[in-house]
C-alpha cells in the first residue's frame, strides 16, 4: 500500500509516495537524498538518525514517514546558514575535534542542539553526559563531544539560535 | 605559515566540513541507478547440516530479482575466503586451514552463517522474500564454550581440524623458564579470561557493486580499511576477477577498529552477483547482522605466572593461552594470538625468560580476528595484571615494582626474549609524569575520604608497550604473513602549484586528510589549503596496504616524506637550471629554492610550473612534470609506550564502579597534531573501559545463540560511563623512520583494561576480595564482594 506524504524539510515543502511501513529516516535518505542522517542500529539506541521534528529532537528510525505528515523537519543538511557560516554547534564540534569518522556526528549535533535548548542554554558536564545517553560514539570517547557541547551552549545563546 | 599548519600544530580537520554538514559519502549513501538490494538469509543455528533449501516461493515474491545459495557458488567454483597468515605450530607444521565457503553449502557453523542471498528491487522486498525461503536443517550439537573446545568429545567444527585445534604454538624455551621458576623467591599466578568483544563501528558494514558489461570491469564500494588488500584477496583467491578489472573504492568509512580489515562473505557475493543480475547491488548490514557477523575480538582463556627473585626483580614468565578463532579463520586471525600477542609479553620490563604456549581453537561462533590493539591488549592485560597482583602479594608499591623492572633507557635498542627488538624508549619519566598528573601522592587520603562515604576507592596502573607499524616485509614473510607491510605514497603537483597526496592507507576516522597534509605543508612549504589527501580508491591511489595496527603515519607518513624528498631533489635541478647555478649550491628552505650566499630564489611553485610548461627547462636531463612516487618498507616495528593510571570508586551495596580519574601519558615519538592524537587516546581508552566494565559477547553455551546481539544486550560505553581524561606526552623519537613517529591509534585500548581492573582489585583488596572478572559489571562486582556471604 502506498500513501502520499507531505511535510516541510529544511524549510522546503516536500512530498512523496511511500509504502506505509516507510520510516522517516528512509524517506529522508532514499526519497529526498538527504543522506546526512544515518542509520547505525535497528533498536533505536545509537542516535545516528536524530533529526528535529517541529523543533524537538527525535530518532527518525523510530517514527513512520506518515507520522511526520505536515510536520517541520530539520536535518543536519539544514542547519548551517551557508558553507561559511555553520551553526554554533557544528562550529564547536569542529573547534573541539568532537568527531572522527563522522558517522554519529549528524545525530550528535542534532541531539546536542536540542539538549542545549531544553536546558535553557545552561549545561554542566554531568548533565551533558547524562543527556547524551541516546547517542553512541565509538571513536571519540565522548571527551571532546562533551567539551564541544559545553562550548556551544553560550555560543548558541549569543547567536540567538 | 607552517608554524600554524605544520608538524606539531593543532590544525583543525580538513575532513570536518563534509561530516558536519551531512555531506560525507558513506557506502550506503551512494546513489546507484537501477540498483537492486541484497538481503542475506542466515543460519539460526550454531551447527547444522543443510538438508534442503527451497527458494521457489521466495522467487515468486514481489520485486525479487534473483536468489543465490551455496549450491550456486559451488557450481561457479567460487574460491573460499582465506586466512592470509600461516602460523607454524611448535612442530613446524602449518596451522590447520579448514575451508571457509562464501555461502554455506552443506553445513552451517555459527549463528549468522549466510545460506541464501536474495536480490530484489528494494531492501524491504529482499527481506520479505528471505522469510519465504524454506531451509530444512538437521541441527547438531554445538561447540560453544571455549574452555571445553579442545576437550575430548566436544563436537568438531571442521573435519580438517581434529579436536578443534588450529595450532599448538609456542615461543621461548620452557625448560629454561621452568628452571628460573624453581629458583624464584615468589611466584604470582593468575587465571584470566579476556572477554570477547564485538567491534561495533558506528557505521555498519556495507557493500555495493556494479558490473560494466561493455568493458567487463567491476566496481566494488566497500566499508574497507584496506581497499587494495581487499581487491588482491578477491582477485587472487576468491573470485578470480583480475585486479585490473576490479576497482575497489572505500569512500567515507564510519569507523573500523579492525573489523573492516577483513574480506567478508557479503562484499564477495555482491561483487560476483552484480555481473549475474546485470544491475548494481547494494547491501548494508542491519546492526543485528553486525553483531552476528563482524569479526569479533579478544576471547582468550589464560593461565599466567610471574617469578620474582628476593629483590623483586622479574626472573621469568610463563603463559598458557587458549584463543578462540570462531567458526572459520578470518583474514589475519591466526597472527593475532601469536605474533601480535606473545611477542609483547616482555612489556616494559627486563624479564629475561619468557615462555608462552598458545592453542588456537575453533568453535561454533562468529570468526574472531583483530580488534583495536589485536593481541597487544590481551598481552598487556596479562603482564600488567601479573605485575599489580605481584605488588599486592609482596606488599610493595605497584609503581615501584614497575620502576624496578623497567628496561633502563640506556639499554635501547633492547632485545626481548620474545623476538622483538625495541628500538627506543624511556619509561621512568612516563610513569613519573602520569603519577604527577594523577596526584598519586594524594590517593590514600582520597581513599580514606571515600571510605567515610561508604565507597571503596582504588587506583590502578597499566604500563603498556605496543608494537605497531608491522615491519619489515621480509620478517613478516618469515613469520608466515602473506603480504608485504610497506606503504606507498604519491605527491602529484598540478601545474598551478596545488597538490594531491595519494596514499595507499585509508582514513576512517584517523584524520589522514589533515595530518598527511600537515606533513607535506611542513616539508614543502605549500599552504595546507592547497593540499588534498586522496585515499581509498584502487583506481586512483597507489597499491598500498591500508590502515590497521597503528601503521598509517609511521609507514604511510614515512612514504610521503620519501616522496617529498624526491620532489625537492627534482625541484633543485629545475631551480638550478632557472637560476643558472650548480645543483650542489641549491638549498631548499620554506618552500623556496635558493643559491646559498646570493639573493637568487625560485619558489617551489615556479619550479613546478616550469616542469609542466617546460619552455626554459633542462629537458635533455630531466623529464617534465612533478609527480613523485615512493614506497617505504620500515626497518622495524615502532614501539609506543605509556602508563595509564585509573582511579575508581565502587559502591559495595550495588557493585557499581565509577571511574573518577583517568590519566594517560604516552610516548608516541614526534606528534604531528596533538589535537588528533589526544582524540585517538580518548577513544581508545573508552573502548578499553568498555572491555573492563561493560562489554561482553555472550553466546548461549548449549545452543550457540548470540545473547548479546543488539545495543539492548551489549553494553556500549556511553558518555556517562567515562570521565574526561587527563593526557600527557613524553617524546623519544623513533630512530628509524624519517618522521620520528610511533603510532597512537590503539594505545588507549591496549592499556586501559588493565588500568581499570587493577584499580578495581585495589579497591576491593581491603575487604579481602582477590578476584573480579572482566567485564566488571555491577552484578559481577557485587557477586565478588558478597558472593561468599
Could you say what the CATH architecture of the largest domain in chain A is?
Roll
Output the CATH topology of the largest domain in chain A: Ubiquitin-like (UB roll)
Low-pLDDT ranges of chain B: none
Quick one: how many beta strands of chain A? 5
Bin the strand percentage of chain B.
15-25%
Greatest interface and its participating residue counts: A-B, 58 and 59 residues
In one word, what is the shape of chain A? globular
Helix-and-strand structural type of chain A: alpha+beta
Oligomer classification? heterodimer
Q: For the residues shown, what is the average pLDDT of chain A?
A: 97
- Give the class-level CATH name of the largest domain in chain A: Alpha Beta
CATH superfamily of the largest domain in chain A: Beta-grasp domain
Helix count of chain A? 5
For the largest beta-sheet of chain A, the strand count, sense and barrel status come to:
5 strands, mixed
Number of β-strand runs of chain B: 28
Helical run tally of chain B: 21
Q: Name the overall outline of chain B.
A: globular
Span between N and C termini of chain A? Answer: 40 Å
SSE topology string of chain A: EEHEEEHHHH
What is the percent of helical residues of chain B? 25-40%
What does this entry look like structurally?
- The complex is a heterodimer of chains A (161) and B (789).
- Chain A has helices spanning 24-31, 88-95, 105-118, 125-131, 143-159, and strands spanning 2-9, 12-19, 50-53, 56-59, 72-74.
- Chain A is α+β, with helices and mostly antiparallel strands.
- In chain A, strands 2-1-5-3-4 form a five-stranded mixed beta sheet, with helices on both faces.
- The longest helix of chain A is centred in the C-terminal third of the chain and has 17 residues, at 143-159.
- Chain A is globular.
- Chain A starts with a strand and ends with a helix.
- The mean pLDDT of chain A is 97.
- In chain B, the strands form seven sheets. In chain B, strands 3-5-1-12-9-10-11 form a seven-stranded mixed beta sheet, sandwiched between helices. A five-stranded mixed beta sheet of chain B has the order 7-15-14-13-8, with helices on both faces. In chain B, strands 18-26-27-28 form a four-stranded mixed beta sheet, with helices on both faces.
- In chain B, β23 (592-595) and β24 (601-603) form a beta hairpin.
- With 789 residues, chain B is of the alpha+beta class.
- In chain B, α16 packs parallel to α17 and α17 packs across α18.
- The longest helix of chain B has 28 residues, at 552-579.
- The model of chain B has no long low-confidence stretch (mean pLDDT 97).
- Chains A and B meet through α2, α3, α4 and α5 of A and α2 and α19 of B.
Amino acid at each position: 500500500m502506498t500513501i502520499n506524504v507531505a511535510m516541510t524539510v529544511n524549510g522546503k515543502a516536500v512530498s512523496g509516495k511511500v509504502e506505509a511501513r516507510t520510516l522517516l529516516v528512509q524517506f529522508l535518505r532514499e526519497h529526498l537524498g538527504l543522506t546526512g542522517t544515518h542509520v547505525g542500529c535497528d533498536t533505536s539506541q545509537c542516535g545516528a538518525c536524530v533529526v528535529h521534528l517541529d523543533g524537538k529532537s527525535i530518532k527518525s528510525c523510530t517514527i513512520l514517514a506518515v507520522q511526520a505528515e505536515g510536520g517541520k523537519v530539520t536535518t543536519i543538511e539544514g542547519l548551517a546558514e551557508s558553507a561559511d557560516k555553520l551553526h554554533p554547534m557544528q562550529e564547536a564540534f569542529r573547534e573541539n575535534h568532537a568527531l572522527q569518522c563522522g558517522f554519529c556526528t549528524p545525530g550528535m549535533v542534532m541531539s546536542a542542539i536540542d539538549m542545549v535548548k531544553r536546558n535553557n542554554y545552561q549545561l554542566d558536564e554531568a548533565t551533558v553526559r547524562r543527556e547524551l545517553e541516546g547517542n553512541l560514539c565509538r571513536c571519540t570517547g565522548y571527551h571532546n563531544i562533551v567539551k564541544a557541547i559545553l562550548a556551544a551552549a553560550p555560543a548558541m545563546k549569543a547567536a540567538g539560535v | 605559515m607552517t608554524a600554524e599548519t605544520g608538524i606539531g600544530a593543532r590544525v583543525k580537520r580538513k575532513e570536518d566540513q563534509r561530516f558536519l554538514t551531512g555531506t560525507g559519502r558513506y557506502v550506503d549513501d551512494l546513489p546507484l541507478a537501477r540498483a537492486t538490494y541484497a538481503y542475506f538469509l542466515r543460519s539460526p543455528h550454531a551447527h547444522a547440516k543443510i538438508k534442503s533449501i527451497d527458494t521457489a516461493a521466495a522467487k515468486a515474491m514481489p520485486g525479487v530479482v534473483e536468489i543465490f545459495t551455496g549450491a550456486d557458488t559451488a557450481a561457479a567454483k567460487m574460491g573460499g575466503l582465506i586466512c592470509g597468515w600461516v602460523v607454524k605450530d611448535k612442530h613446524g607444521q602449518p596451522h590447520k586451514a579448514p575451508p571457509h565457503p562464501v555461502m554455506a553449502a552443506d553445513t552451517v557453523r555459527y549463528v549468522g552463517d549466510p545460506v541464501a542471498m536474495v536480490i530484489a528491487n528494494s531492501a524491504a522486498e529482499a527481506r520479505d522474500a528471505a522469510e519465504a525461503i524454506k531451509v530444512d536443517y538437521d541441527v547438531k550439537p554445538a561447540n560453544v564454550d571455549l574452555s571445553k573446545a579442545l576437550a575430548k568429545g566436544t563436537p568438531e567444527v571442521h573435519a580438517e581440524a581434529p579436536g578443534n585445534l588450529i595450532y599448538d604454538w609456542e615461543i621461548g624455551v620452557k625448560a629454561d623458564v621452568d628452571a628460573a621458576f624453581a629458583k624464584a623467591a615468589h611466584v604470582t599466578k593468575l587465571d584470566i579470561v579476556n572477554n570477547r568483544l564485538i567491534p561495533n563501528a558506528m557505521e555498519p558494514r556495507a557493500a555495493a557493486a556494479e558490473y560494466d558489461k561493455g568493458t567487463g570491469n567491476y566496481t566494488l564500494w566497500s566499508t574497507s580499511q584496506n581497499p587494495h588488500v581487499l581487491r588482491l584477496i578477491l582477485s587472487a583467491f576468491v573470485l578470480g576477477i583480475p585486479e585490473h578489472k576490479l576497482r575497489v573504492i572505500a569512500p567515507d568509512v564510519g569507523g573500523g577498529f579492525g573489523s573492516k580489515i577483513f574480506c567478508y562473505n557479503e562484499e564477495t557475493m555482491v561483487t560476483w552477483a552484480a555481473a549475474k543480475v546485470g544491475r548494481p547491488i547494494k547491501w548494508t548490514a542491519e546492526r543485528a547482522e553486525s553483531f552476528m557477523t563482524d569479526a569479533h575480538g579478544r576471547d582468550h582463556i589464560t593461565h599466567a605466572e610471574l617469578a620474582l627473585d628476593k629483590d623483586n626483580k622479574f626472573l621469568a614468565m610463563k603463559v598458557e593461552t587458549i584463543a578462540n578463532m570462531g567458526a572459520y579463520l578470518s583474514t589475519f586471525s591466526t597472527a593475532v594470538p601469536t605474533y601480535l600477542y606473545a611477542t609483547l609479553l616482555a612489556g616494559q620490563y627486563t624479564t629475561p625468560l619468557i615462555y608462552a604456549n598458545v592453542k588456537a581453537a575453533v568453535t561454533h561462533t562468529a570468526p574472531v580476528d583483530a580488534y583495536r590493539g589485536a593481541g597487544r591488549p590481551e598481552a598487556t592485560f596479562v603482564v600488567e595484571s601479573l605485575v599489580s597482583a605481584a605488588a599486592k602479594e609482596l606488599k610493595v608499591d605497584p609503581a615501584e615494582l614497575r620502576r624496578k623492572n623497567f628496561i633502563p633507557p640506556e639499554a635501547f635498542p633492547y632485545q626481548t626474549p620474545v623476538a622483538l627488538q625495541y628500538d627506543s624508549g624511556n619509561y621512568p619519566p612516563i610513569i613519573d609524569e602520569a603519577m604527577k598528573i594523577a596526584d598519586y601522592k594524594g590517593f590514600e587520603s582520597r581513599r580514606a575520604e571515600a571510605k567515610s562515604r561508604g565507597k571503596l576507592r582504588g587506583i590502578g596502573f597499566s604500563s603498556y608497550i605496543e608494537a605497531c607499524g608491522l615491519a619489515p616485509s621480509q620478517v613478516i614473510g618469515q613469520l608466515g604473513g602473506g603480504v608485504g607491510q610497506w606503504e606507498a605514497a604519491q605527491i602529484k603537483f598540478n601545474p598551478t602549484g596545488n597538490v594531491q597526496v595519494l596514499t595507499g592507507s585509508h582514513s576512517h576516522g584517523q584524520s589522514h586528510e589533515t595530518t598527511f597534509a600537515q606533513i607535506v605543508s611542513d616539508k614543502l612549504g605549500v599552504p595546507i589549503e592547497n593540499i588534498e589527501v586522496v585515499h581509498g580508491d584502487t583506481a586512483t591511489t597507489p597499491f598500498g596496504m591500508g590502515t590497521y595496527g597503528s601503521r598509517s603515519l609511521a609507514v604511510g607518513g614515512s612514504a610521503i616524506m620519501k616522496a617529498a624528498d624526491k620532489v625537492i631533489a627534482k625541484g633543485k635541478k629545475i631551480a638550478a637550471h632557472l637560476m643558472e647555478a650548480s645543483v650542489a649550491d641549491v638549498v631548499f628552505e620554506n618552500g623556496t629554492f635558493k643559491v646559498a650566499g646570493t639573493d637568487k630564489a625560485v619558489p617551489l611553485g615556479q619550479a613546478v610550473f616550469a616542469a609542466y610548461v617546460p619552455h626554459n627547462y633542462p629537458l635533455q636531463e630531466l623529464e617534465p612534470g612533478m609527480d613523485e612516487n615512493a614506497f617505504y618498507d620500515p626497518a622495524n616495528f615502532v614501539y609506543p609506550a605509556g602508563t595509564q593510571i585509573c582511579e575508581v570508586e565502587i559502591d559495595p551495596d550495588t557493585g557499581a564502579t565509577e571511574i573518577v580519574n583517568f590519566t594517560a601519558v604516552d610516548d608516541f615519538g614526534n606528534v604531528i597534531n596533538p589535537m588528533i592524537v589526544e582524540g585517538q587516546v580518548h577513544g581508545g581508552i573508552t573502548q578499553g573501559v568498555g572491555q573492563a566494565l561493560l562489554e561482553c559477547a555472550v553466546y548461549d553455551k548449549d545452543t550457540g545463540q548470540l545473547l548479546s546481539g543488539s545495543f539492548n544486550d551489549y553494553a556500549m560505553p556511553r558518555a556517562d560511563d567515562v570521565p574526561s581524561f587527563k593526557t600527557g606526552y613524553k617524546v623519544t623519537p623513533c630512530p628509524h623512520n624519517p618522521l620520528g613517529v610511533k603510532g597512537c591509534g590503539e594505545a588507549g585500548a591496549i592499556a586501559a583494561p588493565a588500568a581499570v581492573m587493577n584499580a578495581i582489585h585495589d579497591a576491593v583488596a581491603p575487604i579481602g576480595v582477590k578476584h573480579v572478572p572482566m567485564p566488571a559489571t555491577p552484578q559481577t562486582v557485587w557477586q565478588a564482594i558478597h558472593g561468599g556471604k
